[in-house]
Amino acid sequence: MENKKVDKKKSKFGLVILIIFLIILLFGGGYFIYKKIYIEDSSNNENNNNDNNNSGNNSENDYSIKIYKTDTNDFCFKYDENNCKDLVFIIKTETNNSKVLYQTKKYILYDDNGLKLYNSNNNEIIKINLENTYDTYEFMTHDDEIIGIIYGNNNENESYYDLTTKTKKFENKYQNLDILDENYLSGYNINIVNNQKALYLLNIKDEKEEIKLNVKNNPYMRFFLYKYNDKYFYVAGGDDCDDSYEYIYDNNKKLIYHNEDFVTSTSTYNSFNEDKIYIYKNNNKNIEVYDMLGNLIKTSNTYDNVMKVMNNYVVYVNNDYLTITNINNESETKQIVKWDESYSYDTWLFSGYYTREKLDMNGYYDNNPGFYISIYFQDKDSKGNYGIRYYFSNIDEITSSPITIPQGGRCKPVLYLYPTITTNIKVSFEHPEYLTTTYPKYYNSWVVKANPNGDLYDKNNKYYYALYWDEIRYHEVNFKEGFYVTKENAINFLEEKLSIIGLNDREKNEFIMYWLPILENNKQSLVYFELTEERESTNKLIIEPKPDSLLRVSIHIKKVNERVNIKEQKLNTFERNGFVAVEWGGMTY
User: CB of 231 within 8 A of CB of 272?
Assistant: First the structure.
């Protein structure tokens, strides 16, 4: 009996212990789950949110670069609810002070214990054998794959890094390098003193100079490449808002055309696609047609005032009519419109032969492949339209439609910014719809960090010496006042008038190097300077913070064939005080 009592007590005691253990297990497990789910996960979420809002604040041993996306699908690297909103991907890094140097929508170049290249498509990281001692970088791609990097320091020579061989090439030999394709670069050196440029076609694989040109009075000339049946054509051309080429070399680098006086111009890009080269001769009255081997096929009849050649069709004025003729079958001729001296043919804005590919490339999705001819009127009674565009795929069926955007174009406005201290500056336009080409790319505005010496840096710390754009033409002048300028006095004229207006030495040099070739090419010109108040009335610059001093200069140049007596334009001198902004550009007639 006594043993049974003892066993009963032991059983009760064991049951109590079991209950206590279950209670501890229940409460302890519950607390563990609560802590895990509600406390730690909440803490993690908070940390993640903090990371999203403060990229660069990496936890210990968990370093990274966080890549965000803007509304325009560009990449950016610091969370900002007004711009960088959506986290796209994360690059794991070795250090907590990694720095992005250059980026595109596919590739990121960054410094992380050495330079590295990140491919966002496959998350591949490639080590780059370059030091992080350079200010500027530019990717060279082929078939959307990066094959090299152009790099350099501000105001110094540039070099090329070959990603295939992981070697440096053309180190510090050229002031500027341009990417042509996977095989070639264009390089140049400019002698400011005598205004002469040495232009080079550079073979990347062999690291050698294929062609060298010494060019006077055209510092903006560069090489272009065209391909025909996997063979190259090497073309050197100017930069005066025209498709004008002074040198054409065949596949063996034999010079087949050279316009020494920079008077005539060759065909546009479309003519190379069309397996022929057209060269304007005798002051735009005859056209020579070459095949892609450089052989002369045909010399056309004489035309009055050739406007353009488009895939065997020549547009010209004949018996007071704008006329189009097939060069290969000159009986195939059509009068388009009665011509007037107040009309102007637009060579810049949607005139020429357009394939479906080119239409898509330029965003003209609703237009049909074929030939387009655009003319503009200076009369005021155009019922709100600026001109007429003619279209045909068959010369016997020409249709027309009104043009409701102004004529192009104003060339190369550049904007210099000189704040008194390093300042973040935003630049935009009252009429951004007038802009065509922009550099850096313009999305609603430019935002740059500007130094007092004029150096500009974008959000990726890429350097620019100025902001650049082209505009469609919307403001012409009547040349009732201005200046008569000859080829012989062009340099002295520009130096004198630009000093009066108030450009500094660097601005004058760059202005003269761009516009002098045009004045010399014209031989005789009328010149008018459109200054700040007049420029502001047509497309106002919006600069924040507002400059203390703003100068805008646009030169208007009209070629004439004889001396013209013109009322001299009065020029006021610009005073540079405080934060200074200076723009120059111009247009030709």
Answer: no
